[in-house]
Every structure is written in C-alpha cells, then in structure tokens.
Amino acid sequence: MSSRTELKKLPISVQSYVDSPEEKNKLYRRTLAIVILSQIFGGAGLAAGITVGALLAQDMLGTDNFTGVPTALFTLGSAGAALLVGRLSQRFGRSWGLGLGFLAGGIGAIGVVAAAIANSIALLLFSLLIYGAGTATNLQARYAGTDLASSKQRATAASIAMVFTTFGAVAGPNLVDVTGEFALSIGVPSLAGPFLLAAVAYILAGVVLLAFLRPDPLLVANAIAALEKNEQYASTAIETANIGAGKRGIMIGAAIMILTQIVMVSIMTMTPVHMKHHGHGLSEVGIVIGFHIGSMYLPSLITGILVDKIGRTAMSIASGATLLIAGVIAAIAPGHSMGVLIVALSLLGLGWNFGLISGTALIIDATTPSNRAKV
Prior knowledge:
The chain is 83% helix and 0% strand. The chain has helices spanning 3-8, 12-19, 21-61, 69-92, 94-118, 121-144, 154-163, 165-174, 176-185, 193-212, 217-231, 236-277, 282-297, 300-310, 312-332, 338-365. Residues 233-241 have low confidence and may be disordered.
C-alpha cells in the first residue's frame, strides 16, 4: 500500500501537519507550550513527596528507621506507572497517557492526605505507590516536547520542557509552612498540607494535557515517520546496523539516568531528616530542598544546548564529576550549616540534571516515534 494511501486514512487534522513542514513547526511550538504549562503544575506536585514524605513517615511510624520508605514507594510506583503511561501513550497518544498519569498522581496525593487524617499506615503506603504516577508522568512529559523536534533540537526541546518544572517545583517546598497552616485550619495534619497542593497541581496538569494537547504530537510524529519509511528505501544491512546502534544507545542512556538517580535520591531523601536532627525547622528544610529542586530543573535549557553542541558523552562525564563533588561536600557538611547544605544539594541537583538530559537525548536518538513512548 502506498504512503499516500496510508496518509488518506489518517484524520484530516493529522494530515495537514504531515503534509506541511510549516504546520508541523507550529504544532511543535504549540506542543511545547502545553507541555510547559503542565510541567509547572507537575513540578509543584512532585515537590511534596521530596520535601515532607520522609518526615510524614517518621511522624506516623514514630521511628527514623523507615524514613526512606516513602521515597522507595513512590519511586517504585513511578516505575510501574512509567510502563503504563508509556504503553498508553504509544497506543492512544501523549495526551491520554500523560493526562491519566497525572490524574492518578493526584488521586495518590489525596490518598496520602486521607492516610494522615486516619493515621493509617497501610493507606499511606498504598497511596504513595499511586502518588508515584505523578513523578513518572512529570518526567515522561519532556519526551512529548521532542516528538516533533529535529535531531539537532531534541536535547534542547527536552530541556525547555524541564526548565519550567522549576517554577512549580521550587514554589512547592517554600509553601510548606503555608500549606501546613492551611491543613491545620481544616483539621488535617500539617505535614499532609503539601500533599493537598500536590493533589490540586497534578489534577490540573492532567486536565491541561487531556484538554489541549491536540492534535497529539506522537500520533503526528508516527504518521510522518511512516510516510518517510514508505517513501525511502532502506537496505536490510543499514536497518540491522541501526537496530544494533539503537539498542546500545538505549542501554547507555538508561544506565546514565539510573546511576544519577541512585546518587541523587540517596542523598536527597535523608537531607530533611538530617536537618531535623540538627534543629532545623520545616521552613529551612523547604529552602534547602527548594535550592536542590531548582538546580535539578532550572539549568535545563543551558544543559540541553550543551548536550546538543558538545555532545552526550561529555555531559555524561560532567554529570558524574558533579555528583561526586556533591557527595563529598554533603558528607563533610556541618549539620548546623545551611549554606554548605545548600551548596551540596544544589550541586547534587545539577549533576542529576546533566545526567538526565544527556541520557534522555541518547534514548531519543536511539528510538523512533513508533517505539519511543513504550521504550
């Protein structure tokens, strides 16, 4: 069947973007704008778990021994949700996959609040798993910004989407006191306050994507890729070589992101508990975590340009070096010194940012629209 016959079978709204490079570029810019808006809300939602998740577990369990459980649970939930969101996106488009993922995260945040009110450990643990869907979706949203990007725009496109997460992600930790006071005023434990914000933020992010991410960028990208494949003959040898290179790129990109995540989460999770032991209040914890999250996302635009200009490998090496320095500073930082903790956590976020964007670019390079969301 010819490519033009296949094109006629597509919805009219998609056909116009496949046929016109100008329309495709307009949709690319519009998609980035919608993703940016969702990322602002999504950033506010993910900040709750990072800032007070460990403290809420400590308060409900009455011990420090399990303060890493919240991060472990919403990371595990994030992993499971990533699989579901990716498969939904591949089959039905980004708007459905990402929109439903954010809504699930919002429901999880509501469950955490309910668990705090009822003092139910079982409900807390289950809700944190569901809450992890928001984290996974927030990170996967950056790929939606790259679906229609050229090979020289990919890291930059991903970074543009990520940088706007900063606005919500930095605001979230600094609203700990405000949301805590609001929670108390309606009869909810103060540590559950940030999860009230997370619920609203994640649900708004989901609604934005479901309502406005149309026509779906992944479906358009799939149509363009299918058309190009039918119009251009590729030899079996070249296709086999590309498949091999793709697998290597996916493995290397994933390894970089896994290693940076391990280092970042290990240090970040215990920082609020460490600070509390040394007499720091919730507002001070919020400031340090705010700097950390800001460093995770705010440099993204510059990082994306560097990844596209000087290469994926160079920025991956820079990630490892920055994380090493952050770990050393965090290990020797005096417990009473907020300044040194801010430096350590800021470098930690920056190293994570370098690794995430360089790893993301490697994976995007190694995939096609037909398998990217699933991968």
